[in-house]
Inverse folding.
């Protein structure tokens, strides 16, 4: 349930903060994104919970299994699934393209390659944000638990929450600054129809968040 809530929030955020260029006459882009988002949320939540289900189903209770499944595996899975939901929800951007502009802000065309680049960059930044924000606290909490700095379960939970909040607060500006909001793409990397409409060597696009 918590996985479902988390991915619902991040998917809604992605839906609201993508590039709004994508249009198609045969269907509503927003409607398609909502349906794809619901599917992506359900899939990501199930994949995120699968290791715990598998461990409980086959009663794998060894300390190594507990460490891997409960401490180490959820973070990379969360990062991977966060990137997956970005790609699925924003798929119309690389299917239909996004607007590219010259240095003066004049739109010179709609590019699928720019859309693909924008979605890849956003997915990578989202994976780094959530993967790191949940991996580092899990490792640090493990060592705190081993060293017995936190004497009670409540104290350990407080330490874990503090670490998650601190790492997330530190990683948020890092992930947002990995790629510029106004992305650049070389003229040579664009479609032929755009090459013929401008002499600019670099064009720009809105990456989204």
């Amino acid at each position: 349930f918590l996985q479902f809530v988390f991915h619902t929030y991040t998917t809604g955020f992605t839906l609201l903060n993508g590039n709004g260029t994508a249009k198609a006459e045969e269907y509503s882009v927003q409607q398609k994104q909502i349906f794809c988002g619901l599917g992506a949320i359900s899939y990501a939540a199930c994949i995120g919970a699968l290791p715990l289900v598998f461990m409980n189903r086959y009663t794998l209770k060894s300390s190594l299994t507990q460490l891997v499944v409960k401490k180490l595996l959820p973070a990379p899975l969360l990062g991977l699934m966060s990137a997956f939901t970005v790609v699925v929800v924003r798929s119309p951007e690389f299917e239909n393209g996004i607007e590219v502009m010259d240095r003066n802000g004049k739109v010179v065309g709609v590019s699928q390659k720019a859309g693909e680049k924008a979605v890849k960059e956003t997915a990578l930044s989202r994976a780094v944000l959530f993967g790191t924000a949940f991996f580092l606290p899990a490792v640090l909490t493990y060592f705190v638990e081993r060293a017995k700095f936190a004497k009670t379960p409540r104290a350990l939970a407080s330490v874990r929450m503090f670490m998650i909040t601190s790492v997330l607060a530190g990683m948020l500006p890092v992930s947002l600054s990995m790629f510029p909001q106004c992305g650049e793409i070389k003229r040579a990397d664009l479609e032929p129809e755009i090459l013929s409409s401008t002499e600019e060597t670099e064009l720009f696009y809105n990456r989204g968040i």
User: Anything to note?
Assistant: Residues 1-206 form one domain.
